[in-house]
Design brief:
The chain is of the alpha+beta class. It contains 11 helices and 11 strands.
Length: 306
């Protein structure tokens, strides 16, 4: 039997039994609806399992931490004096080769006299950046406070992972010779050091607020979140706790490399320069690279500036 004769017989068969033709027309549509409903159900169940897993995750202080974040600061409050143990003061030969060194420092709140906002863009894309604060004291001492992910061994930052409760957040307290110099001289990222326009009382309160947050996170862990619990959102919270005019959430804060525009618009950068000129003026990389070993790094990066 050839194909042509088989086709003719099959047509006659369908004419003789029309119900089979009707089933043949209905069956593909029914199968499609069935598999479509099954697919939706599978996606729904997978979503429930993912939400359940995500909700079961708990932040911890006990993990196999990276060596540069293994030890957290310990903050002791005593009247007008704040003592911080485990202030980081590493000595770097490269980003992966360094001498681990911690010191204990005592900060007199009556001697605090300056505040700086630090921005480190770290991506080839426009937007991602790390931000932190530096505080100066009348005796020439400076200390940096850096809200950042606390990495486990082998981990590296990812914005997507930062949404999925993959990192804890911690405040690292360190000398500028560590936390700033690491970024300018070894990571080779651009770093901007902006002086902040504020009264001594405001600066004192900002430092105290940051130290309380440092202390809290060293005892009660929290997850980092790329959008609402990151470096710049925490700094914004400290600032807003001291201001009547609140700094709102904005796209510039979600893209922290533009956060200097936000504080500039609020008149918080202590400069009369236009923002683009201020960025160039307060980029400290050339000064940082000129600072030799044994030099006062904090003084070197402020040479000729406020």
């Amino acid at each position: 039997m050839n194909i042509k004769s088989f086709g003719a017989r099959f047509k006659n068969f369908l004419k003789k039994y029309p119900r089979i033709r009707t089933v043949g027309k209905i069956l593909p549509s029914a199968l499609w609806k069935f598999f479509k409903s099954l697919g939706i159900l599978i996606v729904f169940i997978a979503g429930l399992l993912a939400v359940s897993w995500w909700g079961s995750l708990k932040p911890s202080l006990l993990r196999d931490w990276a060596s540069d974040q293994k030890i957290l600061p310990n903050v002791v409050f005593s009247g007008n004096v704040i003592r911080v143990e485990n202030v980081r003061d590493f000595r770097y030969r490269s980003t992966s080769d360094y001498d681990v060194r911690y010191v204990s420092e005592t900060y007199d709140l009556d001697a605090i006299d300056s505040l700086y906002f630090v921005i480190e863009p770290f991506s080839e894309f426009d937007g991602p950046a790390h931000t932190m604060l530096s505080f100066g004291f009348s005796d020439g001492k400076y200390v940096s406070v850096s809200p950042e992910i606390r990495k486990e061994k082998g981990e590296s930052f990812s914005p997507v992972s930062g949404i999925l409760n993959s990192f804890e957040i911690a405040y690292m307290v360190g000398t500028e010779n560590d936390l700033v110099k690491l970024r300018t001289n070894f990571r080779k990222d651009d770093v901007f050091l902006y002086p902040i326009r504020a009264t001594k009382t405001q600066i004192r309160d900002m430092f105290t607020s940051a130290m309380h947050r440092t202390d809290k996170l060293s005892k009660e862990p929290e997850f980092y979140h790329t959008l609402w619990n990151n470096c710049v959102t925490n700094i914004r919270s400290h600032a807003n706790s001291l201001r009547d005019e609140k700094i709102p959430v904005s796209i510039e804060l979600l893209l922290p490399s533009h956060s200097d525009q936000v504080i500039y618009d609020f008149g918080l950068i202590d400069t009369s320069l236009p923002i683009e000129e201020a960025r160039e003026y307060y980029r400290i990389n050339p000064l940082a690279e000129q600072s030799g070993e044994g030099m006062d790094f904090s003084r070197a990066i402020r040479k000729g500036r406020k």
